[in-house]
Every structure is written in structure tokens, then in C-alpha cells.
Amino acid sequence: MELLLVIGVMAILAALLMPALAAAQARGKRAACLDNLKQSALSFQMYTADNDGKLAQNYPLGPAGSNSWVLGDMKVSVDSTNKTLIRRGKFFPYASQVPLYRCPADPSRTGDAPRVRSYSMNGWIGSRYMETYPRTNGFRTFVRDSEVAAAGPARLWVIIDEHESSIDDAWFLVTMDDSRPFASFPATRHAGSYGLNFADGHAEFYKLREPESEMAEGQVSAQNSDWQRLKQVTTIR
Predict the structure, then answer these.
(1) Which alpha helices (DSSP H) does the chain contain, by range?
(2) Which of 9, 175, 207, 216 could form a disulfide with 163 if both were Cys (CB 3.0 to 4.6 A apart)?
(3) Given pLDDT bands bounded at 50, 70 and 90, which one contains residue 115?
(4) In a domain, 11, yes or no
(5) Distance between alpha carbon 73 and the CA centroid of its chain, in Å?
(6) What is the pLDDT of residues 1-15, one digit of tens each?
(7) Mean of all residue pLDDT scores within the chain
(8) Which of 75, 96, 31, 76 is nearest to 86 (CA)?
């Protein structure tokens, strides 16, 4: 009877501790994701400093031989677990550990292996591609540090924690004309929040407020407050 009582008490204590342990684990993953984003922000700055003010390239489905900040399409199975494509990216000399490119809370896998990347770059940064996109309405693209400086580095996000359902190439689409709100979805895995870094080097989390944002699928309203908030730090006119 005494043994059964001890076992019962231990089971109760374990049940009480489990939520606290899970919460602590979630906080740890959130902190690690933020550190990853800070490291990629530093890589962004160091690459630019080493390349005469030019930003690392960022194109949708950029060619394998390009000067892209990172390579690989997470929707392509042979790419999604290929660490070599991470190492061939222009940020790797500055962020030279493959796990830095994956959020520790990212559940996505290809077969039995985790995907190698969770992060994507602002589609208005690293190329002039968005100037050819329909109805750009005079919004600016950024390919040099002087252009970023003119916009205000603290108000321009660079790398985002993208949702596992939408991530493919390393290029995150934001349509400033509201034609496709959340064509690329931010992650929701940090208690309904996603991380992003900025050109001045800081990183932070944005809490999603709208239920349709957390679904990360389907059509999103142009009036969605989460969408409008992301647009405000994506580019300028």
C-alpha cells in the first residue's frame, strides 16, 4: 500500500511538472530562434561590408550558381534535406553552422529527416525583381547598403521565420498592393508568433492577432492587421 501511495504521489507530481517543462522548452526554442535571426542579421551586414556595399542576392527560385544568400527549395525533397545547398549560400562564411538556418521549433520533415531551412528573405531586398511585379506602385527595392540606410535600417525587415506550409525558395513575397495578402505565410510555432530581423541587426517577435493569420492557409483579407503590420516594415515608397 505504501509503495502504491508513493507511486501515486510521483505520478501526480509528474503531471504537475509536465506543463512547466513544456513551457520552459518552448521558451528555449524561442530564444534559440531569436539567436539564429540575430546571427543572420549579422551575416547580412558582414557580407555587405565585405562586398563594397552590395547586398547578397535574393531571387525567387534563384539559379544554383547565383550569389544568393542561401540556396535550395524546401518544397523539393532533394533540396529540403541538402546541407550542401546551405553551405553554398553567401551567408555561410559568416553563419557557418547549418542548424542556424532552421528554427528549433520547426516541425517540418522530408521523410525521416528535418528540413534544413526555416527562414526566408524579404523579397524587396537583394534584387530588383519586385520592380517587375505587377502594380508595385512606386515601392522601392534594395540592392545596396546606401539604399537601406536611406530607408531606415531599423524599420526594414530582412529575414523572417516562415511557416512550414508555405516555405519553398529563400524569397518571401509581400505584395504591397494587397493583391495577395500573405502569399507567403509567417510562422506560427512560437505561441502564435513569428520572428524576424531588421537591417540594423536587431530581431524581435511579432504576435499574430487575427485567427485567419494563424491558420496559414486560404485567402486572407487585405484589412488583416497582421498583414498590414508586416507591410509597414517591408519597404517604402
Answers:
(1) 2-50, 77-80, 83-87, 145-151, 211-215, 225-232
(2) 216
(3) very high
(4) no
(5) 14
(6) 666 665 655 666 556
(7) 92
(8) 96
200 is in which domain, residue-wise? 30-232
Give per-residue burial for 114-125: e unless 16+ CB within 10 Å, then b: bbbbbbbbbbbb
Number of domains composing the chain:
1
Cell of 186: 509567417
| Spatial contact of 190 and 105, defined as CB atoms under 8 Å apart | yes
CA 102 from centroid of its chain's CA atoms:
9
- Cα–Cα distance between 232 and 54 in angstroms, integer? 24
Beta partners for residue 203, in sequence order? 197
Alpha helices in 51-130 (DSSP H): 77-80, 83-87
Buried b (16+ CB within 10 A) or exposed e, 158-185: bbbbbbbebbbbbbbbbbbeeeebbebb
Q: What is the pLDDT of residues 20-59, one digit of tens each?
A: 656 668 899 999 999 999 999 999 999 999 999 999 999 9
